[in-house]
Write a structure and sequence with these properties.
Layout: H1 3-7, E1 14-17, H2 24-33, E2 40-42, E3 46-47, E4 62-63, H3 66-74, E5 78-84, E6 87-92, H4 94-102, E7 105-109, H5 112-121, E8 126-131, H6 135-145, H7 150-165, E9 172-175, H8 179-192, H9 202-217
Parallel strand pairs: 1-7, 1-8, 2-7, 3-4, 8-9
Antiparallel strand pairs: 3-6, 5-6
Helix pairs in contact: 2-8, 6-7, 7-9
């Protein structure tokens, strides 16, 4: 994108969050790949956990030691950071600078804790909470990974419930029933621009409460 084109529109970070198994990473990848989407630069997060099969350092995550991660936090070099499932995750602050220089929206795929820190640090961030159509979809996706032990699966389902309860703090809710429609909806929300307040409507809040109820039944 040319500097003139970048100057003609407002750039802001776009935060995708939601429970594990909701499909936010798939939505992220589709947004980055589709030409119809607004210009995005993916924010590669940093983590202390070990890489999973096929994950590449510097592409999927930046994998670092816990001591290195904590040193960056102490120096103020992290835009956000959180502990999830016993491991440290965060966003280097210079990711935001790179996106602005490229004339693109910084696209973040992060957990609820990190999302809160981003919109506190960057007032113009647009936060979008991704949910599946049913709680069973969450459980099925997590089981399908095949990389979690029974104890890890239980912990992730418990954490999914906590994350769902935080949905009302976000700007917008997107239900990921059909991936193509969810991607189009997120893209349209970004094109629409920033919203004046972080508060989901009553219908969206009822939808989330239903998913939580289903998760409790599981």
């Amino acid at each position: 994108m040319s500097p003139a084109a970048a100057a003609s529109r407002t750039l802001f970070p776009v935060v995708l969050s939601g429970p594990s198994g909701a499909g936010k990473t798939t939505i992220r990848d589709r947004l980055l790949a589709e030409a119809r989407s607004p210009g995005f630069l993916f924010s590669v997060s940093m983590t202390t956990r070990a890489p999973r099969a096929r994950e590449r350092d510097g592409v999927d995550y930046r994998f670092v030691s816990r001591s290195r991660f904590e040193a960056l936090v102490d120096s103020g070099a992290m835009l956000e950071h959180a502990t999830v499932h016993g491991e440290r995750y965060g966003t280097p602050r210079d990711n935001l600078d790179r996106a602005r220089e490229a004339g693109a929206h910084l696209l973040l795929d992060i957990d609820v804790q990190g999302a809160r820190q981003v919109w506190e640090a960057v007032a113009e961030a647009l936060s979008i909470f991704i949910v599946p159509p049913t709680a069973e979809r969450i459980a099925r996706q997590l089981r399908g990974r095949g990389s979690e032990s029974p104890e890890q699966l239980r912990r992730r389902l418990t954490n999914a419930r906590s994350e769902l309860k935080a949905a009302a703090e976000f700007d917008r809710l997107v239900v990921n029933d059909r991936i193509e429609e969810a991607v189009a909806e997120v893209s349209a929300l970004v094109a629409e621009g920033l919203v004046p307040a972080r508060r989901l409507g009553a219908a969206d809040r009822r939808y989330v409460r239903r998913i939580i109820g289903e998760l409790d039944a599981l």
